[in-house]
């Protein structure tokens, strides 16, 4: 499916900009980037794109990438998010070394810069309220109106600002605004707010501050203080670029970084907005930020995604300046491709149906040799016990099979993987309910290992687990969390809960695993033959093994969609 080969690193427009800068010896040939998360939620796969981009550029050009917490909004931020963000960036394989920063480390400096702006007549304390400020701002087609407080003297402004800081005023009474141009075509430039009064505790500075800087003010100065050369952000900040540069132009800062915007990642059947992801958690549509159905890094990790697969995905989607929507099937392709190489294979039955091989000796057990990974001979072989009573997949038997059904059916012969050919001779049912209880088969002792001396053809091969040797487990199968390709945008999805897929987690409590899996532990990853790639969930305990399906073997989702669109036509 992907058209880009694995090992060549594709170029992008940001690399072109950086290479031009390097040639011109701009920034003394240095490249310094940063990843600036706001600690108000867990990171998601969209952030992974930004992380791979920023840390990746630093690596490519022998530069540095800082981790900076953009913690200027104390209401929604907390230490749990800081901790999870660090864990996720590390897990993805990136290292900020000793360059961990917080915008809150700069609060004092930022305040001093604000005073500088006031002194040079470039900022003023405005006492309009929120609604008035909005009203005065004008529209795309009409210029704004100047605030009556715009002509306050420098001294009055400095005094008011200091008293705002001290907590002498209530929230909303005053704000500090840049004095730019109320008729600017770019609305962002119409005297934007730089500071607001917020009387809340900050998770790092506690109650030291009664005023907090706005993103536009804090971000560019933080970049400059850290010596960032290329400040890479998503497209929605394109209009803010003018303000970014205006602020830095007014101040004596150590350097003047360049802001470059790129398109954020959008994924089908997925929501990538912390605000909405928080809603899923608080409304308990999912079990938490790391629910295996969540597009968070921690959810993907718990689901069984590897850092390599996510980095590979980010590489493949590339970096562009135009918004687009990436098919979730591409992310699944990437994990499938990685696990195919590294995951050992096992036999497991997730919806067990008992089979008795009536002509197989009662107490006999044979060890069958199985290949651990056909992609990697070095992973070796193992033994699987075969006996008279086996479990097969309920779906692998059909009493009244349609044409081209090559699995087990009355009178039909199939191959048991690594075992023998068996033929169904009887179906035992519950006399009351008529539900199938067990299947009786005979086996051909000449077919051990899966071929017959007479060369007769058997089309179907099914997997199995010996009843007496099986390990019990709970298996959880996942589907997309949303029923709409563009949740949040679809007309039928006004509220998020309108398009939540109620069948997105199916729990199978009676799965049976081959005994070689007895020592698996949390995080282990493997393929169950014919069923997909799986991993051990963190909620597993000694006596209750829980296994998540990471992804199916084939791209069933794309197929289902194709069928649906065909039907719709
Ligand atoms: P959200 O909309 O999910 O709340 P955000 O942009 O507010 O995201 P931040 O913590 O501010 O979240 O993001 C940190 C960095 O990650 C920013 O530089 C932001 O541009 C980038 N980022 C966030 N979402 C995406 C995305 N979907 N694709 C690419 N980059 C993203
Ligand atoms: Mg943000």
Descriptive notes:
The protein has 569 residues and is α/β, with parallel strands linked by helices. 26% of the residues lie in helices and 22% in strands. The protein has 13 helices and 25 strands. It has a 7-stranded mixed sheet with strand order 10-23-24-25-21-22-11, covered by helices on one side. The protein has a 7-stranded mixed sheet with strand order 19-16-17-18-12-15-20, with no helix packed on it. Strand 16 and strand 17 (421-429) form a beta hairpin. Helix 7 packs across helix 8. The longest helix is centred in the N-terminal third of the chain and has 16 residues, at 45-60. Bound molecules: adenosine-5'-triphosphate and magnesium ion. Adenosine-5'-triphosphate binds next to helix 2, strand 8 and helix 9.
Notable characteristics:
disordered N terminus, seven-stranded mixed sheet, binds magnesium ion, 25 strands, alpha/beta, binds adenosine-5'-triphosphate, 569 residues
Which secondary structure elements does this structure contain, and how are they paired or packed?
Blueprint: H1 13-23, E1 32-35, H2 45-60, E2 64-69, H3 79-91, E3 100-102, H4 107-119, E4 123-126, H5 130-136, H6 154-166, E5 175-178, E6 193-197, E7 211-213, H7 215-225, E8 230-234, H8 241-250, E9 258-262, H9 274-282, H10 297-303, H11 307-317, H12 328-342, E10 345-346, E11 348-349, E12 352-357, E13 366-371, E14 381-386, E15 389-393, E16 413-416, E17 421-429, E18 436-443, E19 461-462, E20 464-466, E21 471-478, E22 505-513, E23 525-528, E24 532-536, E25 546-551, H13 556-568
Parallel strand pairs: 1-2, 2-3, 8-9, 10-23, 12-18, 16-19, 21-25
Antiparallel strand pairs: 4-5, 5-6, 6-7, 11-22, 12-15, 13-14, 15-20, 16-17, 17-18, 21-22, 23-24, 24-25
Helix pairs in contact: 2-11, 7-8, 11-12
The structure holds adenosine-5'-triphosphate and magnesium ion (MG).
């Amino acid at each position: 499916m992907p058209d880009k080969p694995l090992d060549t690193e594709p170029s992008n427009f940001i690399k072109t900009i950086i290479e031009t800068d390097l040639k011109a010896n701009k920034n003394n040939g240095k490249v310094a980037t940063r990843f600036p998360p706001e600690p108000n939620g867990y990171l998601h796969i969209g952030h992974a794109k930004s992380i791979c981009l920023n840390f990746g550029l630093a690596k490519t050009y022998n530069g540095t990438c800082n981790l900076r917490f953009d913690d200027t909004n104390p209401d929604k931020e907390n230490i749990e998010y800081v901790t999870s963000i660090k864990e996720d960036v590390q897990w993805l394989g990136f290292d900020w070394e000793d360059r961990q920063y917080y915008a809150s480390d700069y609060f004092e400096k930022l305040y001093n810069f604000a005073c500088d702006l006031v002194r040079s007549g470039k900022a003023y304390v405005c006492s309009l309220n929120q609604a008035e400020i909005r009203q005065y701002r004008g529209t795309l087609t009409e210029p704004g109106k100047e605030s009556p407080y715009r002509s306050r003297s420098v001294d009055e402004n400095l005094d008011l600002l200091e008293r705002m800081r001290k907590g002498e005023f209530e929230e909303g009474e005053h704000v500090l605004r840049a004095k730019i141009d109320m008729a600017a075509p770019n609305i962002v430039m119409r005297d934007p707010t730089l500071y607001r009064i917020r009387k809340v505790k900050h998770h790092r500075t506690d109650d030291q501050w009664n005023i907090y800087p706005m993103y536009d003010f804090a971000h560019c100065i933080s970049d400059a203080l850290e010596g960032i050369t290329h400040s890479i952000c998503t497209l929605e900040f394109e209009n803010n670029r003018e303000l970014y540069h205006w602020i830095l132009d007014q101040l004596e800062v150590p350097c003047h970084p360049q802001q470059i915007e790129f398109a954020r990642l959008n994924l089908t059947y997925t929501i990538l907005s912390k605000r909405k992801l928080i809603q899923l958690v608080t409304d308990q549509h999912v079990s938490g930020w790391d629910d295996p159905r969540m597009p968070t890094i921690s959810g993907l990790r718990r689901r069984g995604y590897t850092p390599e697969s996510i980095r590979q995905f980010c590489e493949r989607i590339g970096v562009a300046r135009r918004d687009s929507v990436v098919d979730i099937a591409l992310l699944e392709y990437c994990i499938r491709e990685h696990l195919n190489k590294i995951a050992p294979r096992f036999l497991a039955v997730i919806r067990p149906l008992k089979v008795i091989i009536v002509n197989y000796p009662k107490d006999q057990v044979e060890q069958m040799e199985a290949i651990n990974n056909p992609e990697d001979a070095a992973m070796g072989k193992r033994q699987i016990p075969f006996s008279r009573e086996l479990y097969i997949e309920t779906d692998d038997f059909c009493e009244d099979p349609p044409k081209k059904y090559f699995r087990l059916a009355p009178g039909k012969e199939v191959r048991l993987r690594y075992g023998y050919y068996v033929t169904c001779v009887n179906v035992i049912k519950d006399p009351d309910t008529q539900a199938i209880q067990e299947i009786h088969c005979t086996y051909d002792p000449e077919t051990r290992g899966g071929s017959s001396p007479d060369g007769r053809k058997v089309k179907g091969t099914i997997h199995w687990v010996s009843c007496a040797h099986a390990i019990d487990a709970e298996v959880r199968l996942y589907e997309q969390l949303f029923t709409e390709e563009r949740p949040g945008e679809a007309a039928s999805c006004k509220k998020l809960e309108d398009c939540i897929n109620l069948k997105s987690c199916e729990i199978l409590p009676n799965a049976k695993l081959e005994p070689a899996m007895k020592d698996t532990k949390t995080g282990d990853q493997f393929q169950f033959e014919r069923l997909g790639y799986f991993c051990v969930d963190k909620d597993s305990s000694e006596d209750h093994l829980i296994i998540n399906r990471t992804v199916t073997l084939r791209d069933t989702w794309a197929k289902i969609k194709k069928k649906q669109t065909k039907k719709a036509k």
